[in-house]
Amino acid sequence: MLAFFAFGSMGMRADSELPAPTSTPYQRHITEFHKPFALSFEADLDEMRKNLDPHRQAGLADLTSMVDLLIRHLRPIAIDAGATRMPAESAGIYAKALHNFSKSKNMTRGSTTVILFHFLSDLLDFQYRDFSQESKYSDIPRFHFLTVPANALSSLGVNIARNDEVFGINDHLTVGQMFDYAREIMAVAETSFEEKKQAFASSR
Asked: Could you tell me the CA-to-CA distances from 36 to 73, 78, 180, 189 in Å, in that order?
């Protein structure tokens, strides 16, 4: 069912069916990390930030570098928490999910959502309600291949959409926005793994 909703619905290429408007700023709450693994990730992300122009349009290599950083910090935590499902060892695995997008073009909200959805599905093995018939965003109709990924990430607190009403599938993203998404994912993981670790400890 996941594969059907993520890739097959409506059979269209997202980067050719719709215009590519300019991204608009999104106001975010800056999360304060507490766990050592999250603080270590933040330090490494800050080092990465020093070498990249946050205003440059992001390419696939930028996103995979940030997902690789997340994997490096979170995979050991998943093992320690007793997770039965693990993220891939390399972000390149998730890039293969871009069936409806061009891998040679700059990253968009749509293509970024596909990769992050698959990464988080493996990392958290999260349970979510059936979003396939919901139409939260005006540019993502029901049963569209992005309906489940877009709504699932939003429900977790990873805010990739342009705003609450329009997703902006083909909005080009900047490197700075990728940093924002990486921090939001770490915030979700910090909370989730603390809960998983406590549940795992109590079951032993």
From this structure: 10, 14, 19, 13
C-alpha–C-alpha distance, residues 131 and 152, integer Å: 7
- Cα 145 to Cα 133: distance, rounded to the nearest angstrom: 11
The token duo for 129 is 């309600």
Domain boundary assignment for the chain: 2-7+31-202
- Please give the Cα distance from 136 to 109 (Å, whole number): 15
Stretches in the chain below the pLDDT threshold 70: 1-30, 126-133, 196-204
- Tokens matching residue 105: 């073009």
Q: What's the rounded Cα separation, in Å, for the pair 42 and 72? A: 12
Read off the pTM. 0.81
Q: Which structure tokens are listed for 127?
A: 């349970």
What residue type is assigned to position 156 of the chain?
L
Classified as helix, coil or strand, 57 is strand
Structural tokens at position 192: 């989730």
